[in-house]
Amino acid sequence: MQLFYKIFLALFVIFIGFNLYRMEWNLGFWHEENSKFILSISAAILGIIVIYVLHTMSRLAQKK
User: Fold this and answer.
1) How far is CA 17 from CA 4, 21, 40, 49, 55, in A?
2) Rounded CA gap, 9 and 49, in Å?
3) For 6-21, how does the pLDDT look when each residue is reduced to its tens digit (9 = 90+)?
C-alpha cells in the first residue's frame, strides 16, 4: 500500500474514533444531536472504501 493511501487510512480511522468518542450515548444513536457525528462516521467509512478501491485498482494496473 502506498504511503498516500496509508496516511488517509489513518486519518479516517482517527475521525471514526473521535466521533465515536464524542457521541452522546445516553441520548441514543439516532438522536438529532448525534446526527453530525453519524454523518462524519459514514463519510469516513465511505473514504475507507474508496481507499481500498483505489489501492486495488493500482495493484491491477501494476500487474498489467
Assistant:
1) 20, 6, 11, 17, 23
2) 10
3) 999 999 999 999 999 9
Residue owning grid cell 465511505: 46
Q: Which residues contact 29 (CB under 8 A, 6 or more apart)?
A: 23, 38
59's enclosing H/E stretch is helix 35-63
What confidence tens digit (pLDDT) does each residue in 43-61 have?
999 999 999 999 999 988 8
Distance CA 54, CA 17 (A): 23
